[in-house]
Amino acid sequence: MKTFQELKPWVEEMAVLCQPDHIHWCDGSDEENEGFLKILVKEKKAIQLNEEKRPGSYAFFSDPSDVARVENRTFIASKKQSDAGPTNNWRDPDELKETMTKLFHGSMKGRTMYVMPFMMGPKGSPLSKIGIQLTDSLYVVVNMRIMTRFGEDILKLLETKNEFIPCLHSVGYPLEKGQVDLEWPSTAIENKYIAHFPEERLIWSYGSGYGGNALLGKKCLALRIATAIAKDEMWMAEHMLILKLTNPEGRVKFMLGAFPSACGKTNLSMLIPTIPGWKVETVGDDIAWIWMKDNGRLYAINPEAGFFGVAKGTSYQSNYNAMKAIEKNTIFTNVAITDDLDVWWEGIDGETPEHLMDWKKQDWTKASTTPAAHPNSRFTVSTSQCPVLADEWDSPEGVEISAIIVGGRRPSTIPLVHESLGWKHGVFMGSMMGSEITAASISDQIGKVRRDPFAMLPFIGYHIGDYLNHWLDMGRKSNYPYLPKIFYVNWFRKDNEGKFLWPGFGENSRVLKWIFERCDESIQAELTPIGYIPAKDTIDLRGLSISSSQMDEILKIDVEAWIKEAHSIREYYHTIGYKLPKQLVVELEKLEQRLKYFDANEQQNVDF
Q: Which of 233, 264, 291 represents a domain boundary (last residue)?
């Protein structure tokens, strides 16, 4: 990190390196933002949408080579390669800096360097971190203003907080005098670098203008660098939603949820329950920073101030509250545009229009064979516009966590929900989570499980073995009775005909209700080799057309399948190497032993 006194000298040093024509210190005001958006429209880098249908909203279209995070160009440049571990791309920090310094040299010629003061986390929170990002992309500026606490106020706060994380970003497309700019400037894939220097708390990103590659407060700072800081300072930075669940009597519990992509994470954070009297409110949809107070209990804050959500598949039916949030003042990226200047994507409500402008800005009709919107099309919108936003979302004190939910997309083996036997077993459950591969270029990968511990595989800023041990250390630090219960859910189990056994979406509130009541230990559960599953009739099925045989199937423990699962987990653990915590191997061995003594026919434990 750098101090406040180092800020101006650092900005000047980077300006000498990048050679911008101008330097602009962002104040974060509405007037400044409106001016930036007018410039972007004038330069044909953005389209202003229909003010009656989508007021205050704009659409952007990226270069087809720059549409998502690029994991193979994302690096952890720790001093020791062994500290990066097997799941990260490692580069020697000195060599990487030398390579990137040559790329940054003159990279902002013909452009303005924007200085963006931002903060991750609520003002006054002990965990909140200030960043200063330098960029030559106005697209990045207008998005970062939504996604973070941003502007002059943060600069003033820095004077007292006195430390910041420096973030340097360039699209890597300098302009010579008279040269016409591209609508979406970027550079070739081999020159793209998203680099993290964990010991220095430093982020450098070059060559991409898209999403997590360029909005450096999000995955780069709030996860990869934050995980390294959290390990040193004994807290946690996690890829988790935070939701508030209120029962009909007005009692409240806060829960965290970790899910790989395509598992309904954002939907769950904004869920509309189907059971009477229950209410879900949103604290955060993507990232949680978690720490332990003196009482031994875990508390969490949402470090972000906006949602950067996947547009495709989002509809009033699948996520009503997200659709309400993006009705105004929203930035859309790589969606399709209707003839009356509104947005469209596959899965949105209503009939498919006869004609659209697709995300490549080409004519599109119903006869077209390519998607109109990119599969990774996005919306950026302020958290404040969420219609079910919890009052506590911006609390510097955080919210006390009662339950941690993990999950993945598994058509078999994993039941609808099960509860861990304790914290260590819960960490084991988080370490084994993942989704089954349903499509791959190599056919023998189909059906295998892509392990994604706590949905953090691309986001851990150090060795995955040390990361899993950090989870165990957090448990050791607390009085175990005060720790949240850990649950594994699977909305995606299928029957023999390939049909989903559980309806999902709002009906998932029935599982949340069971979790809520298990946290109070007010309902019974059945002990199985994998943990506690719902006892008969403890999941509220009122008004739901689902048979008892379907529920038996969705909660069934298939011993043979779990023996194979245990073997697969052991194979995965081998890839982690010598830093894998021994306690997780012990938990795996215990699972294998319990499976031996489980009567599959009677669905009960025998002398266990």
A: 233
**What are the angstrom distances between the C-alpha of 280 and each of 185, 252, 370, 590?**
41, 10, 37, 36
CA distance 379 to 82: 37
**Spatial separation of the C-alpha atoms in residues 415 and 393, rounded to whole Å:** 31
**What does each C-alpha distance from 504 to 156, 163, 267, 275, 417 come to in angstroms?**
46, 45, 10, 13, 12
Domain boundary among 385, 413, 430: 385
Is the per-residue pLDDT at 456 higher than 80? yes
Q: Whole domain around residue 413: which residue ranges?
A: 238-304+392-557
DSSP 2: B
Q: Please tell me the predicted confidence (pLDDT) of residue 603.
A: 55
Above pLDDT 70, what percent of the chain?
A: 97
Whose structure tokens read 């499976």?
595
528-559: burial string, b at 16+ Cβ within 10 Å, e else:
bbbbbbbeeebbbbeeeeeeeeebebbbbbeb
Of the residues 18, 26, 220, 263, only one is catalytic, namely 263
Helices 423-432, 582-596: axis angle to 10 degrees equals 90
CB count within 10 Å of CB 347 equals 12
For 86-98, write each residue's pLDDT tens digit: 999 999 999 999 9
Are residues 514 and 507 in contact, defined by beta-carbon separation less than 8 angstroms? no
Instruction: Tell me: do 203 and 100 sit in the same domain.
Output: yes
Burial label for 180, CB within 10 Å (0-12, 13-18, 19+), is exposed
3-state SS, residue 24: strand
What's the pTM?
A: 0.96
Angle, CA of 484, 489 and 494, to the nearest 5°? 175
The answer as to whether 579 is a domain residue is no
pLDDT, averaged across the chain:
95
Domain for residue 578, yes or no?
A: no
Query: Tens digit of pLDDT for each residue in 180-189?
Result: 999 999 999 9
User: Tokens in use for 306?
Assistant: 């906006």
Cβ neighbours for 29, distance < 8 A, ≥ 6 positions apart: 151, 152
As a whole number, mean pLDDT of residues 545-560 equals: 94
Handedness of CA 195, 198, 199, 201 (dihedral sign): positive
What CATH number does residue 548 fall under? 3.90.228.20
pLDDT single digits (tens) 339-372: 999 999 999 999 999 999 999 999 999 999 999 9
Which candidate, 408, 405, 422, 463, places its Cα nearest to that of 581? Answer: 463
* pLDDT tens readout for residues 210-229: 999 999 999 999 999 999 99
Q: Is 519 an annotated catalytic residue? A: no
Asked if the structure places residue 142 within a domain, the reply is: yes
- Residue-wise pLDDT for 60-84, tens only, equals 999 999 999 999 999 999 999 999 9
Asked if 454 and 366 sit in the same domain, the reply is: no
Q: Are 16 and 84 in a shared domain?
A: yes
Cβ-proximal residues to 574 (8 Å cutoff; 6+ apart), any chain: none
Residue 118 has pLDDT above 70, yes or no: yes
337 and 356, same domain (yes or no):
yes
Q: CA 1 from chain center: how many Å? A: 24
Give yes or no: residues 544 and 432 share one domain: yes
